[in-house]
Amino acid sequence: MPTQLNPALIEKALSITGHFEDSDDPFGAVSGNFDGMGISLGVLQWNIGSGSLQPLLKALSTDEIRTPCPTCGADLIRARGVSPSEGLKIVNQWQPGGKLPATIKNELKTLAHSEPFKAQQIKAAQAVAARAYKTCGEWCAAWNQEVDAHAFCWFFDVYTQNGGMSTVTPQQVDAFVRDNPHNGIDMICSWLDDRVSPEHGFRDANKNAQLWRNAVPQAATHLFSASFLRAQRSKIDWRADTLNRKGTIAVGQGWVHGEKQRLDL
Asked: Mind listing the pLDDT tens digit for each residue in 206-224?
């Protein structure tokens, strides 16, 4: 495995993960409190609730926040300096009915696009990319596979969206593949086909069940199986959405957030 990450590979991973969040504008993606995180900004959806957005905001000057955000800038400056729970109270006051007003959403998009904030996004992405790359190398070695773009982008999405592999190990994945040599993929697709409302991504999951059945390349079997096992460690309502994302990267195509994705990997 190379000792240094190829910058082009980081950019590829960023573009894929960011595209899942905002297909038209990954770096400027803005989300409100739909997931309990208050607000989420940028290509990796750094957010107030987890405390991941605060370091990026702290690296900016007050003017670099106030200028693009004349309405909400003062609140952002306060939110970056308090606990995540207190920060959530501040930004959730903007969202009557749980929806960001257009004025504030536009200001946040302007902030996300600004050169100072974009520089912080890239800096933060490099750190998580290194962690993902290290884990990717260890898992691929355990499977006697080479590190490739599919694998790295898969681990990058796991680290940025799910925090890591939870309790799943490469040995568990290897055992799942070994113990289900003929029906493992069918079993996963049947699970997807059984998803229903109110699970997030259930419609995409149903479509993916048809798309992926008999269509997962042999080389992607371990990564696809890992997608299923990691999804089972997510919160119940988000398991289908997690598998939609991870399976799409593993296979190279799939339905995510209502859009059929074809990845150039």
From this structure: 999 999 999 999 999 999 9
Answer for the pair 99, 32: CB distance below 8 angstroms, yes or no: yes
CA dihedral for 206, 211, 214, 218, sign (positive or negative): negative
For tokens 């536009």, what's the residue?
106
With the CA atoms of 106, 112, 114 and 118 taken in that order, what torsion angle do they form, in degrees rounded to the nearest 10? -170
Q: Which residues pair with 46 in a beta bridge?
A: 41
**What is the phi-psi region of residue 197: left when phi exceeds 0, alpha when psi lies from -120 to 50, beta otherwise?**
beta
Phi, psi of 115 (to 5 degrees): -60, -40
Is the pLDDT assigned to residue 191 strictly greater than 60? yes
Tokens of 196: 């229903």
Buried b / exposed e over 107-120, threshold 16 CB at 10 Å, is bbbbbbebebbbeb
